[in-house]
Structure formats: C-alpha cells, structure tokens
Amino acid sequence: MSRRPAPEPFDDALDPALPTTGDPAADGTAAIDFSSLSVAGVTRRRVAVLASAMLAAWIVIAFARQVSDASAAATRAQDIATGNAALRLEVAAMERELDLIGRQRFVEQAARAYGVGSVHEIPFALAPGVAPLAPDAPGSAAVRLGSRSDDVPPLERWLTVLFGPSG
What we know:
mainly alpha
C-alpha cells in the first residue's frame, strides 16, 4: 500500500454533468496495469541476453588475463634461462682464470712485482715522476724487431750532423 494520499480527481470526474457508464476503464478513473508493459523495451528475453553477454565478456576477460599471465611467466622463464647461460659462461671464464693464476709461472711473475724473485735477478722500478720514453727509445714500437726503419747511409748521417738536415 502506498502511503501517499490519494490524488485528487480531475475536475471532469467530479462534474455531475458528464455521463458515467459504470465501467471504470471507460470512465478513465481505473488504474493502469504496468506489469503488461515493457519498460523502455526491456523484456525478460533481452535481460537474459544481456546477462549472458556480460557473463561471456567476463569469461573472455578472465581468460585473456590468464593468457597474459602465462605469456609473462614464459618470457620471465626465458630471461632466467638466458641469464643462467650467461652465468655459466662467466663461471667457466673464472675457472680458467683460477687455473691460470694457480700455475707456478704466474706466481713467480706476480712475485717479481713485489721484489721477490730469484737471487740472480736485479729488482728495479721507475721513479714516480719520470718522463715518458721517447718514441725511438730501445724497446719501443719504432725500434722493435720487424718494424720499418729508414736506412740512411752513414755518409748522409755525417753530413746531416755537420751541416744540418737537407731540404
């Protein structure tokens, strides 16, 4: 039951001059039954179709999220496998280096840097503020075995020393 007060009838309904037939539907005073009308075109079938479509969309979205998660996990597994392969190579390189520094020849070479060597060796070190070597110093790339050198005859060298360079 409604708590609203009953609406007041139209002036036409109160007019005693209008004839009444006794039928409330014909008089316009009867209430209309809205249950038989569809509200804005919404029927049970359309609601069912809409609910089914929403359920299907939810299932598709959930499935897509699962596929996305599986793809991300596969990518992560591939990255981990690649990282493991790189670490294996690094470990192998470190093992080779460990074998190298464990050899007696390497230990003797490293000991020379600290002045520890055989009794027949003369330890030496360069002074901290020494100038760099000249490009044609003994042992430099310009004078090494197999490098090109300008063969100047001795007479030309003497003339250069006495009279200066020519040309």
